[in-house]
Model the fold of this input.
Amino acid sequence: MVSVIIPAYNESGNIRILCEGLNEILSKTHYSFEIIFVDDGSSDDTIVELVNLHERFDNVHYLRFSRNFGHQAAIKAGIDYARGNAIISMDADLQHPPHLITSMLEKWAEGYDVVYTQRINDDDISKFKRFSSSLFYTLLRKMSDVPIEEGTADFRLIDAKVASVIRQTKDPFLFLRGLIPWLGFKQYKLSYQAEKRFSGVTKYSLSKMLAFAINGITGFSIKPLRFAIFLGILISLLAFVYALYAVLIYLFNDHVISGWASVMVSILFIGGIQLVILGI
Ligand code: UDP
Ligand code: MG
Done:
C-alpha cells in the first residue's frame, strides 16, 4: 500500500481538488493507497472539507491537531499513522504536482528507499521567497555537516523502513530536510517545475520561516559552537597580550589612569573564558 500525507493549515480551497487529482492518478497505478490529511489547527473550513472527503472516499483519512503545531510536526504525525510500504508527503496547495507521484513510485519499485524532489525553474515564486530560500540554503550548507540541497522541499517518497526510523524521533524541532539526507539509504532525486499556489496565501510567515531556518542550522551543525570555542580562545589570548602591555605601561609610564588596565583585562579574559565554556 502507498500512503500520501498532506499537512493542511487553512487550505479549505485546495484540498478537495488535490484529493480528486490524487485519487485519479493513484487509481491508475496497481497499488492500493490511502490519503491522510493532517489538519494543523486550521481556523477555516478545512475540517468540514476533510469530513466530507472522508465520507466520500473510503481511503481518505484525517488527523486533526488541537492547535497549530507547524508543518514538520504535521508530516511527522502523518508518518506515525501511515500504514503504507511507501509514504509520500506533499503540500496541500497544489504546488507539488501530483503527476510526479507516478515517477516516484517507479523509482521506489526500482529499489530506491528515498525519492526526493528538487524544484527547478521557479518563475512563479516571489522574489523574496527565492532570495530568502537561497540565502537559507547557502548558510545551511556552510554551517551544517549534512549535504542539504537547495529547492528540496518536503515533497518526497520514503520507504517503510525509513519511516520506521523517523517514527523513533521525538524531536519537537524536527527538520526533515536535514534528517532524511543524514539517515543515508538509497536516495534518488527527481526534478520538477513548481506550480502556483492554487488557492489562498502562503502559510509560512516570516517568523515561521525564521524558526524553521534556526531549527535547520542548530539541529544539523556544531559549527557555531566550534566557532564560539575558537573565538573564546582568541579573545583570551588577546586579553593575555593586553595584560602584558598594561603591566609594562604601568611600570614605565606615570600617566596611567588607575584601575583601567585591570578592568579591561578582566572583562576581556572573562568574556573569552565564557565563550570557551559555552562552546564546550
Ligand atoms: N502548513 C502547515 N502548518 C503550518 C504552515 C504550513 O501544515 O503552520 C502546510 C500548508 O498547509 C501547506 C504546506 O505546509 O500544505 C506548505 O505551506 P505553504 O504552501 O504555505 O508554504 P510555501 O509553499 O509558501 O513555502
Ligand atoms: Mg506552498
Q: What stands out?
A: Residues 91, 93, 95, 197, 202 surround magnesium ion (ligand 2) (CB under 6 Å). The chain has a mean pLDDT of 88.
